[in-house]
Amino acid sequence: MTHMTLYDLIGRHGEAIIWWQMSARAIVVFIIGLVFVRIAGKRVFGKWGALDILLAVIIGSNLGRAITGGAPFAPTLAATAVLVGLHTGLVYAAIAFPALGDWLKGSPTQLIADGQIDWRQMRREGLGPGDLDQALRCAGHLRPDEVEAAYLERNGDISIVTARPSGSASA
Fold first, then answer.
1. What is the DSSP string of 36-98?
2. CA separation (Å) from 107 to 41, 47, 93, 102, 156?
3. Which DSSP state fits 149?
4. Which member of 39, 110, 121, 160 has the greatest number of CB atoms within 10 A?
């Protein structure tokens, strides 16, 4: 009785692989990819930052090549694991060092101050009036002069700070 090796199951790099070997690779890569995504955390695919998008694209590319045999199986999975670890390390470093966090993840940009739109910042960020109107409506406002401030956040959302009604006392 012969024993089956991993290479019998998934094929060898540089050799043609048959349909069931590619299917076996797909199952293994799916399970390992799921583990990588769970390790990377919710934020990678929740609110996409530049760091998260880059990791997602590279993971997708690497795992796709591992499935189709376009790259050596084990080294490709190892390199993907290293990238997930690098991403995790950078996330924690960004927490510890806010300047690094701003460089990696970006920083908020003020779009409205005291009801006045900063058109220079809007152009710089590639936003048009429709983008701001949508954010205002989502926050329950129709006009910029109804808000104290609006920010383009580092995750790409626009947040609205509502102006206090006139005559209200501050706490």
1. HHHHH-GGGTSS--HHHHHHHHHHHHHHHHHHHTSS-HHHHHHHHHHHHHHHHHHHHHHHH-H
2. 21, 14, 16, 5, 10
3. E
4. 160
Rounded Cα distance, 140 and 133, in Å: 11
pLDDT in tens, the chain (171 residues): 566 777 777 777 677 777 777 777 877 887 787 777 767 655 455 566 667 777 888 888 988 888 888 888 888 888 888 888 888 888 899 999 999 888 877 789 999 999 999 999 999 888 899 999 999 999 999 999 999 999 998 878 899 998 666 655 554
Look at the chain and count its residues.
171
The β-bridge partners of 152 are 109, 158
Q: CA–CA distance from 112 to each of 68, 149, 163 (Å)?
A: 50, 5, 11
- HEC sequence for 66-82: HHHCCCCHHHHHHHHHH
Q: What is the pTM of this model?
A: 0.59
Question: The dihedral of CA 66, 6, 21, 36: what is its sign?
Answer: negative
